[in-house]
Fold each of these.
Amino acid sequence: MQEEIYTLIQAQYPLIYLVTSEEERTEKAIAQIAHKSQQRRVYVWTVTHGIVEYGQPRHTTQHNTVSPEAAIEWVVRQREPGIFIFKDLHPFIDSPATTRWLRDAIASFKGTSKVMILMSPVQQVPIELEKEVVVLDYPLPDLAELNQVLDHQLEQTKSRRTTTETREKLLKATLGLTRDEAEKVYRKAYVTAKRLTESEVDIILSEKKQLIRRNGILEFIEEDETLEAVGGSEDLKNWLKQRSNSFTERAREYGLPQPKGMLILGVPGCGKSLIAKTTARLWGLPLLRLDMGRVYDGSMVGRSEANLRNALKTAESISPTILFIDELDKAFAGTSGSADSDGGTSSRIFGSFLTWMQEKTSPVFVMATANRVERLPGEFLRKGRFDEIFFVDLPNAEERQQIFKIHLGKRRRDIARFDIEQLAKVSDGFSGAEIEQAIIAAMYEAFAQDREFTQLDIIAAIKATLPLSKTMTEQVTALRDWARQRARPASGFVAEYQRLEF
Ligand SMILES: Nc1ncnc2c1ncn2[C@@H]1O[C@H](COP(=O)(O)OP(=O)(O)OP(=O)(O)O)[C@@H](O)[C@H]1O
Ligand SMILES: [Mg+2]
């Protein structure tokens, strides 16, 4: 990134917009670049102090440069080449006067080797400036930079020399954090354990989970269930099992590509979310849920995009990982048709997300679920976007037996006491979730009467339930018809195939 900024400055780009939440680190990098490019001076503007030369005390502030316009005017008046950093100009940038001042300033920079750098955690560029500005995301520290942080920490704490392997583990554990955050977690791990060795990696990782939690858009999900807790969907489960080791070095050497992602479509309550969550356990990867509702932030233009970008960056930084987007249809519902309703934000978010999916090279497996296919933008369904699109249908009789067994077993009941076949028969049209609910209802009924629940209680509960497939027959039928054409069935594929061939 330093190289890129250096090149832009050498090529006399007048306006660069750096999106970053790490001011100090970014400033330092710019100062180094300035040093490299013929000792240009660096000035920093803030709304609190006005313009101060980089590295100089605050009282040396240039007279009367606190207001954005006065500061820009001051910059225009300078004759020497220089780099002028404006920190957090974004709240002012939408004012017509500021925008105009900026445009005039940029125009006056031609041939002067002056460059303005806008630095802010959110990207906000008025249309008038879009053509003139280069927007760059200042990346989180890489392994080399984290290595410096670790070195510094080890030196300060006079820790004994660490092996390369330990060092690598300590470093990898902090990938995805800002420099400050990395410093903090190393310090905390050291304070807690009085040393920094491999055994402290866990402390660092749990700190990192805390930090990720705090950002609120990504969430670490820990799931106790295994894929065995999902009844039916045999083909889908096999597909997943086959790919258990696909993020290993061995798979790369073998020549396999990294799986990109899968989309699970299906009737509500048929285990889509459950499958997604248990896959992480099966594959031994961390599961990060991306909360699209929280990505959207109407408080400021550009904030939603920045949110998404940050979340995706964080996910990449802890890869290999599974990025779980539940209810993708809801997340991108506004994209088709009603794009104008939110000033096009959802369309832009959708665009950025697709681009990211297309271009990502880091091992982040996207696992998405949806049940309202008609609201899902067509782009998601195009071949090659996901490795596979599965359709999870209502369970058939045999699958319902499995589901009854799973849920009775979960509640530590002897399956032999029940006529599972009969239960499966009377629950025709029920989803997995509805079967589970029927068992729970039967249990409540019996518990209230202070006795153990029986076959009859479950049957009574089933009879008392109107399943979704009956109350929403049209939607369910439409979904099935649609999915049969376009998605791979989660089970029964082999059986159907055999019927065709033999
Ligand atoms: N095939 C199944 N096998 C076992 N349990 C199931 C199955 N399907 C659903 N369940 C039970 O129902 C619960 C809810 O299912 P889940 O949330 O995974 O459904 P979903 O398909 O994601 O539904 P929605 O479309 O409403 O989000 C599960 O946690 C599980 O206990
Ligand atoms: Mg779900």
Amino acid sequence: MKINVRRMQTADVPSVVRIDRMSMTVPWPARVYEREVTTAHTRAWVAEAGAEVIGMLVLWIIVDEAHIATVAVHPQYRRRGVSEALVRTALQEAANEGAVTALLEVRAGNIAAQNLYRKIGFEAVGRRRGYYKDNGEDAILMTLEHLSIETLAHASA
Ligand SMILES: CC(C)(COP(=O)(O)OP(=O)(O)OC[C@H]1O[C@@H](n2cnc3c(N)ncnc32)[C@H](O)[C@@H]1OP(=O)(O)O)[C@@H](O)C(=O)NCCC(=O)NCCS
């Protein structure tokens, strides 16, 4: 399967929202994605197979820090490297723009996502107790230091 990763556009929002609803406990409304696409510090990405949007990622650049806000892949297309391609592309582009570190919060029970981030080089550095308001679940805080070296090294491997 050939995967193409490109920046999200407003026209992608309906597909992105469908994937989000199939993937997240608390999905974001369409208007949030519509706003993110045009927000200055946001870099929103989609993965497509042919003409179909099958995954998405939203990253915020805050000074020299890249914060992964959300990432999800259509259930039918999981375990084929789609999220890995999204995360690597987004981080590489963030590094090209001057981001030095990356961070994210992930649900303590979301082992698939934690494995994904570990594979890319993130390490768990903390726990935010009761961070998720819907069920009181803890967040694991993960960071990737030295973004440019790490990410570019892996991306060219
Ligand atoms: C987490 C998620 C984004 C992974 O997407 P994906 O495209 O299937 O992941 P990839 O195929 O790129 O897998 C990359 C690595 O992640 C890990 N991983 C992915 N899915 C996994 C699973 N179900 N169980 C264990 N590890 C998993 C593995 O380390 C995998 O590498 P490997 O295939 O070499 O073992 C996807 O399962 C998803 O959309 N889940 C719901 C939304 C979510 O939890 N988002 C993250 C929190 S914001």
Amino acid sequence: MTRRQQTERPAACAALFALLALAGCGDSAGPEGTDTDADTAEQELRTLLGIPDHFELPSIPDYNPPTAEKIALGRRLFYDRQLSANGEQSCADCHHQELGFVDGEKTPTGSTGTVLVRNSMALANVAYNSSYTWASDNLLTLEDQIKIPLLSDSPIELGVTDGVRDEVFARFEQDPEYAQLFQDAFPEDPGGVTTNKVVFALASFCRSLISGDSPYDHHVAGDKTALTEQQRLGLSLFNGERFECFHCHGGVLLTKAYHDANRLEPQLAFFNNGLYNVDGEGSYPPYDQGLYELTLNPDHRGLFRPPSLRNIALTAPYMHDGSIATLREVVEHYAAGGRLLEDGPFAGDGRVSPLKSGLIRGFEATDEEIDAVVAFLEAMTDETFTTNPAYADPPD
Ligand code: HEC
Ligand code: HEC
């Protein structure tokens, strides 16, 4: 088990005890619980969610402690097209396991045919995100985020809007197998299907999507042969002051924007990496200016969350709008210090955007060095994750 620093221990323990008290497991773990109780509780949570020893515990809202029953129900719902108003789409239609839970499209299409403006996001280790979606500072839990694809009417994804919700939930209430799954997941509330039950179960399933068995993880865990020589060079460039990648995508989670149980507050992080500069003042295409869409602060144009780079070789195309096709082009983008678009509606020189992060400076790099960073990014592919039967469409 990972030994936490002495100073970090109290917050983590308090969070864990709260969680287990609510979960109703770990009987001996009360407010006066001992270190041994905490260790047992931590081990139970690690086993339930499949969290490897080299990861901290994620921060989990105490109103939705994970259980095996909620995860099982959430998994069924995730793959079930009955969870969309017209029965045409499930969460899994935009989040495919074999692609690290993206869909391979530039931007996906919702159940009624609306094309979305943003690229689908990978779901590996989403339990640890400090904020959700490409650019929101107000979606701090999976529970809040999942309501959007489920319930929103603009744009429509699954389209379970107010007018059709009872009808959609009745499909599950009338199915004896689902009735039992809901009963097992929420034994304290034997009533019908509610938005909260659906969302809590889906969030619990998403929290169980842990990727920690890539060659990079084996390297972190001390296996000196896990990475090739080229990948080790790529890792040192990634973590060096010339390429600067680690400032925004560092640590074992490969993002600065994380929240684990040792942090009382989520580490929010948003950056402009110079993809656009349509007016010379740093603007992005008018239909999606990143964090600015929420804050209306002009300095927030082009601010997006640095995503985790886990399974990144599987999740092309890249960036919030899928506008970069390959990993090599991504690294070349950073080497150039931004993107020059010579023509088209969004022409402009991102390299001189006044709003891009000071860390996107551009740098000299040989072809071999760029290849090495790409090879390192490929070491993030976790086949245990993409083939884990526990994450797949459950058999009937
Ligand atoms: C039509 C395609 C589509 C469907 C259906 C869909 N998603 Fe997504 N998902 C996306 C896109 C696109 C984003 C990024 C949204 C944004 O940034 O505004 C996303 C983001 C997410 C995120 C945030 C990940 C992160 O790192 O912040 C989670 C979690 C998620 N989806 C889970 C789900 C679940 C659960 C369902 C089913 C209830 C679902 N999605 C249905 C396309 C979809
Ligand atoms: C200043 C912070 C910052 C630095 C430095 C940085 N990135 Fe990023 N990275 C981001 C942000 C923010 C995004 C998302 C931008 C967007 O979609 O508009 C991103 C996106 C990416 C993506 C696409 C992710 C996806 O899921 O589509 C890859 C790959 C990537 N970065 C790799 C790198 C590499 C390699 C380096 C070093 C050469 C690097 N980044 C340096 C902030 C940074």
